[in-house]
Amino acid sequence: MLNIALFGAGRIGQIHAGNVSLNPDCQLKYIVDMNHEVAVNTAKKYGAQAVSIEEALADSDVHAVLICTITETHADLIERSAKAGKAIFCEKPVDLSIDRVDACLEVVKTQKVPLMMGFNRRYDPNFSHLKNTLDSGDIGTVEMVTISSRDPEAPPSHYIKSSGGLFRDMTIHDFDVARWLLNEEPVSLYATASSMTSEHVKEAGDVDTAIITLTCKSGKMAVITNSRRASYGYDQRVEVHASGGMLTVNNMPESTLSMATEKGITSQKPMAFFLERYAAAYRLELDAFIAGLSVGVENYPIGEDGRKALIMADAAVKSIATGQVQLLTFD
Amino acid sequence: MLNIALFGAGRIGQIHAGNVSLNPDCQLKYIVDMNHEVAVNTAKKYGAQAVSIEEALADSDVHAVLICTITETHADLIERSAKAGKAIFCEKPVDLSIDRVDACLEVVKTQKVPLMMGFNRRYDPNFSHLKNTLDSGDIGTVEMVTISSRDPEAPPSHYIKSSGGLFRDMTIHDFDVARWLLNEEPVSLYATASSMTSEHVKEAGDVDTAIITLTCKSGKMAVITNSRRASYGYDQRVEVHASGGMLTVNNMPESTLSMATEKGITSQKPMAFFLERYAAAYRLELDAFIAGLSVGVENYPIGEDGRKALIMADAAVKSIATGQVQLLTFD
Amino acid sequence: MLNIALFGAGRIGQIHAGNVSLNPDCQLKYIVDMNHEVAVNTAKKYGAQAVSIEEALADSDVHAVLICTITETHADLIERSAKAGKAIFCEKPVDLSIDRVDACLEVVKTQKVPLMMGFNRRYDPNFSHLKNTLDSGDIGTVEMVTISSRDPEAPPSHYIKSSGGLFRDMTIHDFDVARWLLNEEPVSLYATASSMTSEHVKEAGDVDTAIITLTCKSGKMAVITNSRRASYGYDQRVEVHASGGMLTVNNMPESTLSMATEKGITSQKPMAFFLERYAAAYRLELDAFIAGLSVGVENYPIGEDGRKALIMADAAVKSIATGQVQLLTFD
Amino acid sequence: MLNIALFGAGRIGQIHAGNVSLNPDCQLKYIVDMNHEVAVNTAKKYGAQAVSIEEALADSDVHAVLICTITETHADLIERSAKAGKAIFCEKPVDLSIDRVDACLEVVKTQKVPLMMGFNRRYDPNFSHLKNTLDSGDIGTVEMVTISSRDPEAPPSHYIKSSGGLFRDMTIHDFDVARWLLNEEPVSLYATASSMTSEHVKEAGDVDTAIITLTCKSGKMAVITNSRRASYGYDQRVEVHASGGMLTVNNMPESTLSMATEKGITSQKPMAFFLERYAAAYRLELDAFIAGLSVGVENYPIGEDGRKALIMADAAVKSIATGQVQLLTFD
């Protein structure tokens, strides 16, 4: 039974806490949150204790930490946890600065602790079904990956301002999915973007609509389309064209009800947002982290995956700024 | 090149006339219609002549007749055409009275002329694809056939009154499809029906909503659901459950456009009515008639199929009247 | 916080136990199971105690019992629990004999305790979405309900033999759904059935393929199609035709992946069986029971619903035996 | 009744000939083809005459010409027809050289004759339904257009070599659709491409897989994905994201049959290729040409549309060659 310390008991932290309780091989020992009441209540619910970061890291019975705090604190918490010898699960990103990421991952490497990044989409049952089918070879070799990724609506201004912008905040998930499905590092990136959907995004100096093209040395390519606003709900689809045909993952509707009237046949919108669509993914992601710790193999997205996705996001920002294609180097 | 005489140049007659012109192996020689102007105009369009029934049947160069007149005249025209030695295509039904049908088919039998009944649904590319798949054995042996058949709206009162009622007018097509797909004669029939959708249908003493169950000796069964009104359009679907799985034919939408908004995802209604949905079926049906004449084989629905469908319709009427299950005998 | 005693910790009992732990307003206090080890382990997992029926019912702190034992024990446990003043949730059926059911429900009535029957399909999010839409009036008044209900494969012989037969074991759920959606009691029933899919079902004297038609006084009607074997998986669909159009609930696929190759476009089969398809329904069903107890209103399927569904199943058995339509009386 | 001269009676010429015969407002007067036998047979079929180009253009009773010859002859035939005062319908492209196109269109302009380019996709009922819905304003203002366009397999080497390459031969249709749906001229273009699907395409120095991104001044954008090979058939889909939601046009399947087995649910592939998918589009395109001549309004794709699509194709070629984004100028 692995003992877990949860850092951050906000929206995402609560989801991970629930999933820890569903996993028979681990349990929550400590809850750390700046808001003491939240920490105490969460601890109570799961039979854990509300403590400070220092106390949690000092306990040699804690095997792993889940970092679900605000972005600004990630790199610091990763380093402190690594130095305390804890296995680490961290929500993306490590940091918005690639230099800070590099320094942080160096500490992780030196401390030789496992670090899983929360690229939860790899654990969505639909996407993992697609990936497994690709890996089986049944559809031949990949030629093109297309990713449609749209949020139902833009986050509020204060979030936008500290988010690092569309590419580092939202597209970063798509960059990871693209790398995962291409199974080859892209060598160039081109992005075009505009602010069309949300006045407050434009005012914050960010973009909300984008197309990003990735090219690999082998000739494989990928395209990501993004929007911060889809009136019909959270749009998360993937198409993979391969030598043997096409694999498609569609959205999951709120229900399978459809209504046929003189106006047409109306079916349900996609599940509202990531908490609904990726509920299973969050659970399976945690299971993968725990299973990986048990067998000592990191067969999940690691710090390096987070770093590469950030490099791609930075390149997209530069592509927009210059209007030019960017070469990608991950070394 | 087969010479054709068309009896009746109304809505359906015009469709067959157009299809004759598209078939390279036949041509319209004569048009017969009570409305002389219609006959003349149609003849002009297709390079044919407007003549009387007598003139058309007297011409030994006429190989086949297409009977597209009103129901009341079908049996008489079949008999006269048979006695004149013509191959006959007749829109359903032969007659609304089974005794009249029996007498008429006796004449056809004596004269040894081909008689094809216009059960056009067998030639719908979707239904024939299903039938061919069944016949291939790929899905095993049939266990249950379910037929959904709904008109967009009830015909006007005068039509209802002379139609023979829901079962003889509308369900008769479904009875033929059921026999065709079961590939075994049903031995009993139960129908329940009511007048729910159209006040004028009720006033005409007819029903507009029905469920009919058919049972075969082998244990195979079928169910037909009917309505005279489907606000979402002409609903023509079939499901066949077999030992190896399920075959389904869905409606054909007006277009493949769908619109996703905050209200849901709306796709198009089915094609409006039989002229649209069965446009290809009418064409392929005529081609089958002509091809059958060419090779001398009646591999299409014949008079006996029309007779059996009428026997089933009569049984449905009796089932409603008595509230009881009816045994079916076709001898 | 309501204290719950669970009677029966088998497959279904485990599901309810898990759902109790997810509901913030109740907790498991006692586990009763003939297999002491199972009882002890389950009790341990949920912080409960393994006790005897007598002990559980004797504790005045127990507010409600969940009866998840074998069918033969249901009526007896309901009576004992009622006499002990406990609120009761019972898996269907109360009993396979209508006389026993009547006697049992009389006891419940006398004791004035709540009794919820486990007709879980009413809590499937897809079906309840359909029902809510019907109740909203947006689609007008109901005219016809069609229910497709197929199991992936027949249960083993020993199950079949003690099941009460297809209609009392499997169709009983569909009878409840039909009554719920028709919102009017049917007055007659006709069933046709055969043994086509599973040799051992035939040997057990049961049927595995059936069509059941229900007619209401208002003219509304319903049809249920059943099979004990659907190679493509658990098939649970509903269509409701109403004056304003059609509502349809389709199956939920295992994932939204589809594969397009030269052989066609292949999407996923429906979720494997009831544990997968109705996972959410089981959870929401328990929540409804607990919520109903909290507010003192039985807005869920009660004993009388179980009784009426059994009367319909008995009528279906008689319809098959006699080949005749059966009148339904629920008084 | 407009008299038509058909130049080129090959595959596409035959389609237009058939559609002329279906249009009540025009008739074929002359057939011109290098293969005299083809010309004679086609003329015979439609009651026309097989003549030379000179004869056809010299007849003042010829109102319009349909140019369906090989690409190399288009510009010359347009000029000669224009000088003869004929209205012109020409299959794309005017020419593969932009200079030649400019010169040719200058002649058309001077002669003031109508010139319709055969961008048939605008007349596909699915795409025109989408366009009409956009124009209605029901879905708000366009933000992003995504076009999926894949051929079932690459054409043979000799075709590839004289085709002008993927962008001028195949993508040119997509460029026209993009401009039509964006309703604004793009100002920059980026293309990435590779040879992945067909060895003989690579040997011919052409590409077979491509992603092309277009950006407009307003911030609207479009992405086109292409492949010369889709094992699942001719893939022709469009998605438009607008302020009010998303419009989607899907492929038309060969039939609506689906088969559910233990392997999944298999539906039919898209219609095989352009002759099937765009059969209705070819007919409606010709109707639009004839209707436009009747009312004297060119509300169809004109020479300038052909020119702009070619400029975009040239820019795509340059983008591939340089690896850089290309600015688009149409003046």
TrEMBL record, chains A, B, C, D:
Belongs to the Gfo/Idh/MocA family. This is Inositol 2-dehydrogenase. Keywords: Oxidoreductase. Residues 2-119 form the Gfo/Idh/MocA-like oxidoreductase N-terminal domain. Gene3D superfamilies: Dihydrodipicolinate Reductase, domain 2 (3.30.360.10), NAD(P)-binding Rossmann-like Domain (3.40.50.720). It comes from Marinomonas phaeophyticola. Residues 128-247 form the GFO/IDH/MocA-like oxidoreductase domain. Its EC number is 1.1.1.18. Transmembrane segments: none annotated. It is an enzyme of class 1 (oxidoreductase). SUPFAM superfamilies: Glyceraldehyde-3-phosphate dehydrogenase-like, C-terminal domain, NAD(P)-binding Rossmann-fold domains. One of its GO terms (molecular function) is inositol 2-dehydrogenase (NAD+) activity.
